[in-house]
Amino acid sequence: MSSIQYTKKIALIDCNSFYVSCERLFNPKIRKKPVVVLSNNDGCIVSRSNEAKALGIKMGEPYFKAKDIIIKNNVHVFSSNYSLYGDLSRRVMRTLKRFNSDIEVYSIDEAFIDLSNFPDSEVEKVAQEIRATVLQWTGIPTSIGIAKTKTLSKVANHIAKKKQSGITSFIGVENIDPLLEKVDINDVWGVGKQLTKFYHKNGIYNAKQLKNKSNTWIKKSSNVLGSRTAMELRGISCIDIEKTKSKRKSCVVSRSFGQRVEKYQELKEAVAGYCLNASEKIRSESLTAKSITVFIRTSPFQSRFGYYSNSKTIDFPIATNDSIEIVKTALIALESIFKNGYRYQKAGVLLSGLSEATNDKNLFSTEKDEKIKCLMKSIDNTNYRYGRSTLSLASAGVQKRWNSKRQHYSRIDTSDFHCLPTIKATI
Known about the structure:
The chain is an alpha+beta fold. The chain is built from 14 helices and 13 strands. The protein has helices spanning 18-25, 50-54, 63-72, 82-96, 123-138, 150-160, 177-180, 193-201, 207-211, 215-221, 224-233, 264-284, 323-337, 367-386; strands spanning 10-15, 35-38, 45-48, 76-79, 103-107, 110-114, 142-147, 167-169, 250-261, 287-298, 309-320, 344-352, 355-356.
């Protein structure tokens, strides 16, 4: 009778064509149909269904370049809906915590989870249960790669995406070289464009060749990251799962406008809106900001109208997350850098020097501070329940003609009661 084995096992769970899957969840008619999701201002393609990939539509391709293929093949097109994607991402991550409370949320659609507490012989069965549970509880299909290291689990996931089962495990596989040989070097986690060029010059074209390269060559020709990647491909874990999320040091909110902005009033509304968004984000993480930077620029490709770019940073007297204070300071900065006669393409705000918010009172604390905290809490709770910008400041405007282009917006918002589907019962 063989003993039950427990080795280190890391799984990477990746949501398949995540943005497309989110849109399909609320629109069953587009399942098994070619679908693409566009970036801000409907600029580039950022998510594709398998059917769209089969048509030759490329990731990151400008929408206007793919328009002929899209129209010819009746491809369904959607503008990005980040509030929907963010909500469904949180639901997926909460579901994964059922299997292990300590997970590393790597991106909006990816997470690493430690499965070392499950026997090696049962790991694929556990992966099947994870996929089934996530699909049942959230409606999002996933692919799962399992291996002894994070880099290998990424490789395994890359293979799993092409399999009907959606699962690939390297656990118990004595020789993974034949599998690594099929993985291009640029598909290995941590290998970017420049490193790919370097490896190609030295005859390394796939993951197997890097794995089997001598330690002497790697130490001499590569940096620490390259050495770490090679070690991970050999099954030696060098990158631990980050169980605690580190606090951010800054918060940026910026957008390209749907149409060029010339009037100060419209630019003022945009900056005020970005401030409200940024301050809401840092309050949700119990942070305060020491300073704010406002930046504006015109398009570098419209030389006929002249190019202008500028920014201004102002320190707050006391670190704050008060929307009113942040907006007021930002508009002072904007006024100092705004110039008439330009057609602005983009603006943004950067909150920096973020630190943990405390309830300690200081020399300048007043009763008004407590009232403002209660006001901000009420605004956040209302906007969380009824949708962002339900409560706002007048300086953020109402019409917002400068807003990003969203001509293909699905108008689905899981945090907005007005977006709930209406069911008509027939007796």
